[in-house]
Design brief:
Blueprint lengths: L2 H5 L2 E9 L3 H9 L4 E8 L6 H7 L3 E4 L9 H8 L6 E6 L2 E2 L2 H14 L5 E12 L2 E2 L6 E8 L3 E2 L21 E2 L7 E4 L4 E6 L2 H21 L8 H10 L5 H12 L6 H30 L1
Parallel strand pairs: 1-2, 1-4, 2-3, 6-11, 6-12
Antiparallel strand pairs: 4-8, 5-12, 6-7, 6-8, 9-10
Helix pairs in contact: 2-3, 6-9, 8-9
């Protein structure tokens, strides 16, 4: 890469969706300076989120959900004016590392891969109790996308408590007529500060589990755009072995044991969440059949 490319802003519009993220938003935005545009879409935060974002140079857009589709991220794709058709959805508890910035810069200035792609998966390396987990399971989100080539599907979840205004744990899909564009992955992960407050983590994942269980009961999940991922998810969603599979995958197959006690704690947490989803799904099925 030439020096000029290294000094140019990356032609990507970063969108950070927020609500009451004062403790996290500054750290998140500080890492986004190399991108051409940063937009914070804020849902009437009662803390200093908006002021911190504005002081950091981000464009702050107010958002108020009307209880219908589109939800927040799809609303951004449909209504925000962005400098680039490429958008990067980043959460306030995520940090885009320098090595990931370099890889994304190469995508846009060197490799030319973006011309034939609809989007890129970006992995998240967890920070657990203040420690960066070098091994174990990572989350994987299709969050670097071309706004005209991808969209978030409508699912039957408006009356399910747990997610509200934001799209749940499902991926965007290719927009109509865009099937010829590839979906690829970047190699370098971002950092996901998911577990800084045990109470917040537990409350959030209890909501997520109830939402996911009801989505499974209804058969409302959209297909994952990657066929093998879709097949694996469909198999595991109702399996009684889901928790055990998640633990073994994170702690053994993905070498989480190399992270010591933190790796074990994290793998157990993922297993407990998976078990909760299956338990809730089956209990609702049982009540329904009575």
């Amino acid at each position: 890469m030439t020096d000029n490319c290294m000094n140019e802003r990356i032609p990507v519009s970063v969108i950070v969706t927020t609500k009451n993220e004062e403790p996290r938003i500054g750290r998140c935005l500080q890492a986004l300076a190399p991108f051409g545009e940063v937009i914070v879409v804020d849902s009437d935060s009662a803390d200093g989120t908006g002021a911190i974002a504005a002081a950091a140079g981000a464009r702050v857009v107010s958002y108020c959900w009307d209880g219908r589709y589109p939800k927040k991220r799809q609303w951004c794709l449909e209504h925000l004016e962005t400098l680039s058709p490429w958008v990067f959805f980043v959460d306030a508890d995520e940090i885009v590392t320098e090595v990931l910035v370099t890889e994304i810069r190469q995508l846009f200035f060197v490799s030319g891969r973006v011309e034939n792609c609809a989007g890129f998966f970006v992995r998240g390396r967890y920070v657990w109790n203040g420690r960066i987990l070098r091994h174990g399971m990572m989350n994987n989100k299709l969050c670097l996308i071309h706004r005209e080539r991808m969209c978030f599907p409508i699912v039957d979840d408006l009356d399910i408590p747990g997610m509200g205004e934001i799209e749940g744990h499902y991926q965007p899909v290719r927009a109509p007529g865009m099937d010829g564009y590839r979906i690829e992955s970047v190699h370098e992960p971002l950092l996901h500060h998911a577990y800084e407050d045990e109470g917040r983590w537990s409350e959030r994942h209890e909501r997520y589990a109830r939402w996911e269980a009801e989505m499974t009961r209804r058969g409302a999940w959209p297909r994952d755009p990657v066929p093998w991922r879709d097949a694996a998810k469909r198999f595991l969603r109702r399996s009684r072995l889901r928790g055990a599979v998640m633990f073994c995958y994170s702690y053994i197959f993905k070498l989480g044991f190399l992270d010591g006690a933190a790796g074990h704690s994290f793998a157990r947490s993922r297993a407990r969440y998976a078990d909760a989803v299956v338990r809730l799904s089956r209990s609702w099925d049982a009540r329904r059949s009575e």
